[in-house]
Amino acid sequence: MNLPVRPRRLRANETIRAMVREHELRVTDFIYPLFVCHGTDVADPVGSMPGVFRYSLDRLPAVLDEVVGLGIPGIILFGIPAHKDAVGSEAYADDGIVQQAVRAIKERYPNLVVITDVCLCEYTDHGHCGLVKDGYVQNDETVELLAQTAVSHARAGADMVAPSDMMDGRVAAIRQALDAAGLERVAIMSYAAKFASGFYGPFREAAGSAPGFGDRKSYQMDPANGDEAIREALADVAEGADLIIVKPALAFGDIMWRTKQETRLPVVAYNVSGEYSMVKAAAANGWLDERKVVLEALCGMKRAGASLIITYHALDAARWLTGRA
């Protein structure tokens, strides 16, 4: 048999495969999520997320030294407040846990890119992402508090703010508030396509942010809707977003690809808690090769159009890629 085309010629050995490889996963692609809390000497493990902890500020240097040492360029912070109330007041308080963390981190690691999640769900006693009236999450009133939160994070030293609430018009309000405060250099990494997904369970345990009633389907997106995701992304671009997050990642590669093609902005894949935990569980049971599966999944996100990846696997993946594991 004399075949004129033999694609296997370019798979003959690792050197040739590397020469023609289309996508390369790099440590500089990663953003590492961190949960910060009040207290002293706290490194509280999250039961459903092996290897993930809630850290008090005095315990952050140990993990951040590793983040910086591995070459991971950025982190995203999620706060665990000391007190929750109906209006999520610690979210926008100057002495809130995230604001304290940002100041401490930027003082010690000035070149580390610090991104802050902007939402109210971790801070409200009802667990919803905005103010609630008569059982309904209020949009415009919530947006005002989100803008205050973003400004307080930026004043503390955050390089980027990442609104994750999915309220309409919040990117424009945050951009206007930042600019009015003289913080025009602070970028907005918008959760533009955030779906009402079943993959968020472990995060809600970690952050204590499960809704106290109902669900979030009236503001997070239906996973069945692709066109709507693009409309959301384009709206956020028009309002001043600098980067676009697609969340979750594994089941939404098509959304990442379409978002990249339509917006031409950097797209960020959020490899969420449930995606992390199911790999960890399967690996713990010997059902799959954790290293191989994680790197394959992360590379798939890049192939789908992601420029950056928020992932709880960042430390392990960075060790594997740099040969330090």
UniProtKB/TrEMBL annotation:
CDD domains: ALAD_PBGS. Keywords: Heme biosynthesis, Lyase, Porphyrin biosynthesis. It holds the Pfam family ALAD. Its EC number is 4.2.1.24. The keyword DNA-binding does not apply. It comes from the Bacteria. SUPFAM superfamilies: Aldolase. It catalyses: 2 5-aminolevulinate = porphobilinogen + 2 H2O + H(+). Pathway: Porphyrin-containing compound metabolism; protoporphyrin-IX biosynthesis; coproporphyrinogen-III from 5-aminolevulinate: step 1/4. Catalyzes an early step in the biosynthesis of tetrapyrroles. Binds two molecules of 5-aminolevulinate per subunit, each at a distinct site, and catalyzes their condensation to form porphobilinogen. Belongs to the ALAD family. NCBIfam families: PRK09283.1 (NF006762). This is Delta-aminolevulinic acid dehydratase. The gene is hemB.
